[in-house]
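Changelog excerpt: complex records now keep ligands as SMILES alongside chain sequences, and the structure block spans every component. Example after the change:
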Amino acid sequence: MSHEALHESYVVQAHNFASAGEVSASIKRLLRHIGIDFGVIRRVSIAAYEVELNLVIHSRGGRIDLEIIPPIEIGGETGWLHLTSTDVGPGIRDVDLAMQEGWSTATDDVRDLGFGAGMGLPNMRRNADSFEITSEYGVGTTIKMGFKIQ
Amino acid sequence: MKISRIMELLDADVLMGDEQLDLDIRTACGSDLMSDVLAFVKDHTVLLTGLTNPHVVRTAEMLDVGCVVFARGKRPTQDMLDMARDKGIVMLATKHTLYVTCGILYKHGLPGTEDEAIASEKTGG
Ligand SMILES: Nc1ncnc2c1ncn2[C@@H]1O[C@H](COP(=O)(O)OP(=O)(O)OP(=O)(O)O)[C@@H](O)[C@H]1O
Ligand SMILES: [Mg+2]
C-alpha cells in the first residue's frame, strides 16, 4: 500500500483532562482511513496517547504534529510516519531520570485517574522505531518519534 | 475464549454490546493503573479493572481492547457506556473482586499479557 504525503497539526490544551485522548483518537481514525498497517496504527496510537497525556498532565500546553513521508519520496521501500510533540514548558529538569520506568512527578489527582506511574516515556520509546527527546528546563520539551511504514 | 464464556464464568452482567458476545479474546490484563495497561496490553485482550472513569474507555479504544470487565460490583457512568457504544466496546460487570476475577479466567486457560508482545509485533510487522 502506498500513501500520500501528509502533515497534520493538533493543539493540546494543558490540564484539560476531559478531552485528553481526543487528539490520539483523531490520529488513529485518520491512519485507519488512509489504510496504514494495523500493527503500526496500534503502536502509533499508544505512543500518541502517552505523549498527549503528558502534554495535558505535565506541560503548559503544546501540539502534536503527524507527518507521513511515503517511501516514494525518499526513494526506498520504507517510508516514515513522524509524531512530534512540542510544548511551551515547563521543560524537564533531568531527562535521563524522566526516561526511567517508574519515575514520575504526577500528583495524587492524576494517580486516582489511573495514570502517573512513570511508564509513559519508556513506553513511547518501546513502541516507536526511532525516539528522540530534547528538553530545556524553563523552556519546553520536544519529542520526535518515527515509525517505519511500507 | 469468547466474551460469552467470560460472562458465564464471571457471572457477569452485560452493560453494553450484547450483540458482540461472540468476539474472541486471547489474553487478559487486570489493573487499575492505565499506565501499566498501556505498557502491557496485546491484541484481543480483555481489560479487567476496578477503575470507573472515562479514561478507562479511552485507553481501551486506543489499544483496541474489545471488552472491559468492571470488578467488585463497580458500575461505569452513563458517559462511559455511551463512549463504549460509539467505539464498539463490550462492557461487563461482575461482583467478584479484581483478584478473583483474574483468577477465574486464568484458571480456565486465558493467559496474561507480557511485554515481549510489543517486541514481536515490531519485528514481525
Ligand atoms: N511534556 C512534558 N513536560 C514536562 N514534563 C514532562 C513532560 N513529559 C514528561 N514529563 C516529566 O517526565 C516524567 C515521566 O513521564 P512519563 O510519561 O514517563 O510518566 P508519567 O506521565 O509521570 O506517568 P504515566 O505516563 O505512567 O502515566 C513525568 O512525571 C514528568 O515529570
Ligand atoms: Mg506519561
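The pocket of adenosine-5'-triphosphate (ligand 1) is lined by residues A 50, 54-55, 57-59, 87, 90, 92, 98, 103-106, 115-121, 141; B 35 (CB under 6 Å). The interface with chain B takes residues 17-18, 20-21, 24-25, 28, 37, 39, 42-43, 45-46, 48-50, 113-120, 122-123, 126-127, 129 of chain A (CB under 8 Å).
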